[in-house]
Amino acid sequence: MSKKIVVTGGAGFIGSALIKHLIEDGHEIFVIDNLSFGNRDFVDVDNDHFFECDILDRGRIHSLLADVNPDWVIHLAAIHFIPYCNEHPFEAADINIRGTINVIDACKQLENLKRFFFASTAAVYPISDDAVHEEHPLCPLDIYGLTKLSGERLSREFHLETGVSTIVCRFFNAFGPNETNPHLIPEIQKQINLGMRTIQLGNLDPKRDFIHTYDMARAVIALMNSNIDHDIFNLGRGIEYSVREIVESFERELGESITIEQDPERIRKTDRMHLLADVSKLKSAIGWEPEWGIDQGVKTLINK
Ligand SMILES: NC(=O)c1ccc[n+]([C@@H]2O[C@H](COP(=O)([O-])OP(=O)(O)OC[C@H]3O[C@@H](n4cnc5c(N)ncnc54)[C@H](O)[C@@H]3O)[C@@H](O)[C@H]2O)c1
Asked: Would you say the CB of residue 171 lies under 6 angstroms from ligand 1?
């Protein structure tokens, strides 16, 4: 059945991929985004369904949500790029915590709200050489992870107070079209699409669990359609790839070799060597399996 869905941060990278699927499923989508990182052109909704608004604007968030009176709220708006958060800790804390409080408080007034979704992150976990399960002890290493852990706790409080079904997903490393932040894969993509075959990158050895936004969107929608009342799930692919392996995937897709040069300016002084999701809980809860491997995903990024 068609639902009215508000997506905060809907003009961003993951939000726009998710909205595409939600529209295909016949839902009516309303976007709240201040376009600080997102792009209006990423989302195919009419202007009267797109609200350029900052989640720090408490009064406007309250009135917008009350006017729409949605069935679901999917809260993705956040400051997300870790180096940016480290450089702007007050802004990150303000948007990711105070902004989340504003969205949640506005949700408390809604009569029809049946589901709330909060986008958390793998950055709530400490360094681990193995795949992390949801029960793994939590210990964010940076301000971004700290703000997201706060969001998880605020979401849980919201559920306990209102009884509204609340899903929290800890996203691992998303990749796909329309990236908004200079993460590893879009950085490789940008240089390759400029025709460079010698590319400049930072740390080469860390491994990450890269999941395509296509599979991410499918999982989020399956969770939202499930009967789960309140729970937390890892959302990754369950496979980790090093930077070199990602570059090899670009080589296979191009049929050309690529030389990597390390740029000292891009090297992070501290970096996790591994960040891998144990996704067994998600798979058994909703029967979801990722469909797109790294090669199929990289195909969506190359301009030929
Ligand atoms: N991309 C990933 O790999 C990843 C991993 C873990 C968690 N996440 C989380 O998933 C969510 C979506 O991430 P993304 O990769 O699409 O990032 P993104 O930056 O593309 O999307 C976030 C959106 O929020 C909007 N926004 C930022 N501050 C706002 C504010 N004050 N008011 C209103 N809108 C605001 C931005 O304009 C942007 O469109 C975020 O909550 C992020 O923390 C992403």
From this structure: yes
Q: Residue 254: which of 191, 206, 203, 212 has the closest Cα?
A: 191
State pLDDT tens for residues 97-128: 999 999 999 999 999 999 999 999 999 999 99
Cα(258) to ligand 1 centroid in Å equals 31
Helix (H) or strand (E) holding 161: helix 143-162
- Is 125 annotated in the active site? no
Whole-number Å distance between alpha carbons of 303 and 24: 25
- Return the best residue to mutate from 171, 173, 214, 216 for the ligand 1 pocket (most ligand atoms within 8 A of CB): 171
In what helix (H) or strand (E) does residue 223 lie, and over which residues does it extend? helix 213-224
What domains does the chain contain, in order, with CATH numbers?
4-174+211-235 (3.40.50.720), 181-209+239-275+291-299 (3.90.25.10)
Tokens of 160: 């306990």
| pTM value surpassing 0.85 | yes
